[in-house]
UniProtKB/TrEMBL annotation:
Residues 3-176 form the Ketoreductase domain. GO terms for molecular function: oxidoreductase activity. SMART domains: PKS_KR. Belongs to the short-chain dehydrogenases/reductases (SDR) family. It comes from Amycolatopsis suaedae. It comes from the Bacteria. This is SDR family oxidoreductase. Keywords: Oxidoreductase.
Length: 234
């Protein structure tokens, strides 16, 4: 059955792979972008997840186009890495605002429609470093760990209404975000990954496709690693 899906940051990278996978599965898929326009074949709405009014306006457009959001994939995210000693408060709050408060904003807006429909799927794209930590990523890791708290609290609040809230914790995926790493950083990371390689965005998308499905109805409050074994299940 085709659901109304919204993927934040679905204009490129992992978000775009998720959007394409869900569209292929027969869902009606909308993506947010911040001015780049909609990718071919997908419905695009312009929204920055740090702005509540833009989020609300985007949801209204999606509702008009394909009905209330039934599957929300909160994927938009940024990094701004540096060691804590050098991290400004602005660097910390900017990353948390986009990655964590942004997820709160879209989840809150989506919850209305899901409650009315008595069905819903929240999928939050976290990261292996939200669970393991990473030097230079106090802001990013905190924001990604926070998504687990959001999902598990939502599971308790809404779990009796056929609404699930799960987290995917990707490891290292080939996108613009990881392109900025140096060759030596990349080699050092790959040496720690049992799979011995980075993942393709489509490998994350396949996990989202499952969590968004009717078949995943009893999977709730889970953190699903897609990391080639890097976190060993954590
Ligand atoms: P990219 O940098 O390739 O893409 C980031 C996406 O997020 C873009 O679509 C970007 O939009 C959007 N975005 C960023 N900030 C905002 C905002 N304030 N409002 C709306 N959209 C925003 O990253 P990836 O595809 O690699 O990452 C996607 C998600 O997966 C992120 O949450 C990331 O933390 C997570 N992740 C990535 C991993 C990796 O190895 N790549 C590993 C683990 C997790 P725009 O095009 O306008 O900039």
């Amino acid at each position: 059955m085709g659901r109304s899906v919204l993927v934040t940051g679905g204009n490129r990278g992992i978000g775009l792979a998720i959007a394409r996978e869900l569209a292929e599965a027969g869902h009606k898929v909308a993506v947010t972008h911040r001015g780049s326009g909609a990718p071919e074949g997908l419905f695009g709405v312009q929204a920055d997840v740090t702005d509540t009014e833009q989020v609300d306006a985007a949801f209204k457009q999606v509702e008009e186009h394909q009905g209330p959001v039934e599957v929300l994939v909160s994927n938009a995210g940024i990094t701004d890495d540096t060691l804590l000693m050098r991290m400004s408060e602005e660097q910390f709050t900017r990353v948390v605002d986009a990655n964590l408060t942004g997820a709160y904003r879209v989840a809150k807006r989506a919850s209305r429609g899901m409650l009315r429909a008595k069905w819903g799927r929240f999928v939050f794209i976290s990261s292996v470093v939200g669970l393991s930590g990473q030097a230079g990523q106090v802001n990013y890791a905190a924001s990604k760990a926070g998504l687990v708290g959001i999902a598990r609290s939502l599971t308790r609040e809404l779990g009796s209404r056929n609404i699930t809230a799960n987290v995917i914790a990707p490891g290292f995926i080939k996108t613009d975000m990881t392109d900025s790493l140096s060759d030596s950083q990349r080699e050092a990371m790959v040496a720690q990954i049992p799979a011995g390689r980075y993942a393709e965005p489509a490998e994350v998308a396949a996990a989202v496709r499952f969590l968004a499905s009717d078949e995943a109805s009893y999977v709730n409050g889970a953190v699903l690693p897609v990391d080639g074994g890097l976190g060993m299940g954590h």
